[in-house]
Amino acid sequence: MDFKTLCIHGNKKKYDSTGAVSVPIFQSATFAHPAVGQSTGYDYSRLQNPTREHLEITIAGLECGRDAMAFSSGMAAIAALMELFSPGDHIIATDDLYGGTPRLFRNISAKNGVTFDFINTSELSLVESLIKPQTKALFIETPTNPMMQVTDIAAVSKLAKKYNLLTIVDNTFLTPYFQRPLLLGADIVVHSGSKYLGGHNDTLAGFLVVADDPLSERLRFIYKTTGACLSPIDSWLIIRGIKTLAVRMDRQQENAVALADWLCRQEKIRAVHYVGLPGHPDYEISQKQSCGFGAMISFETDSEQTAKHILNHVSMIQFAESLGGVETLITYPMLQTHADIPKEERESKGINERLLRISVGLEHVGDLIHDLDTALGRI
């Protein structure tokens, strides 16, 4: 079955007898037992709920995984994931992650005795040089947020297997429509479902997708114990969003390619970071492991004044955090997504007062260009 069809018909399980085309929202915290020692398959919604189960089966199928767990947010998913590790364990992580992830690692996981090395995971020899007996996992985000660096997932996964490590991939930017890390050797895929999977900036969600049953069993135990499960109504909203995932990703990428090309030709723009540009240093790796480039663009202006002027004068494009929705959003990473990263570390990666990030939406690209052109022209 084609991916586009799977988005709509990826779970054939029926949950009621009315013939409802849309999966019902089972807004129930608990479920009655038919008799002592008997169950309908559902007992308490923290363990499982029919609406959430429908979503999890769909996501697992799209990512070609054995199981998927839906959480109340992307960070809730990562927080549960970190319960796989014990004091003294070591993790090697990409040094250009969404800011909330290193904040969790450094302030919560480190307190619990887990240690980290943050590096450019596209440099395989550097990754291998940091592996030690205590290392348990490689955590990568590709493309990275916000500098759009790309890590070779297959190469990292092969290295991880050599040392019996887990490979964990944050696939939020590309979604399974453009990239399937489990097929490239990864063990666990992370998603902020609030982004492209939901696609409408109207709900929070997170996912863990696993490649095998032992990982599923371990994470399911953590899942039911810590309890950050996705609600029925939010599960339904993500199910609805996924039905249009393929068509949204195609159109948003088309807009992003045109917008990135236009940005490259603007006098006040000094650098454009978009993996779909042939001049991007990781363009060939992206072509090898992905079937698309996504719709996330970061760009550096000629000055802090220009960056702030754009933020203050865009009209249709909205100055807001988050990404992946139908609306185009522009973000100031140093003040928003990466404000908790130490300044020196942040700026060493290029996340400075001149850097802006755009999540390209579904508007007509001519209108997006006009909006940015007007903002630039007012300087």
Number of helices: 14
The overall number of domains is 2
Q: Order of helices and strands, N to C?
A: HHEHEHEHEHEHEEHHHEHEHEEHEH
Provide the low-confidence segments as ranges: none
Q: Count all strands and give the number.
A: 12
Instruction: Fill in the CATH topology of the largest domain.
Output: Aspartate Aminotransferase, domain 2
The radius of gyration is 21 Å
Large-scale geometry: globular
Separation of the first and last Cα atoms: 51 Å
The CATH class of the largest domain: Alpha Beta
Main pleated-sheet profile: 7 strands, mixed
Query: Helix/strand-derived class?
Result: alpha/beta
Q: If you had to describe this structure to a student in words, what would you say it looks like?
A:
- The protein is of the alpha/beta class and 379 residues long.
- The protein folds into two domains: 3-242, Aspartate Aminotransferase, domain 2; 245-377, Alpha-Beta Complex (Aspartate Aminotransferase, domain 1), CATH 3.90.1150.
- Helices cover 37% and strands 15% of the residues.
- The strands form two sheets. A seven-stranded mixed sheet has the order 1-7-6-5-4-2-3, with helices on both faces.
- Helix 2 packs parallel to helix 9 (232-242) and helix 12 crosses helix 14 (365-377).
- The termini are far apart.
- The model has no long low-confidence stretch (mean pLDDT 96).
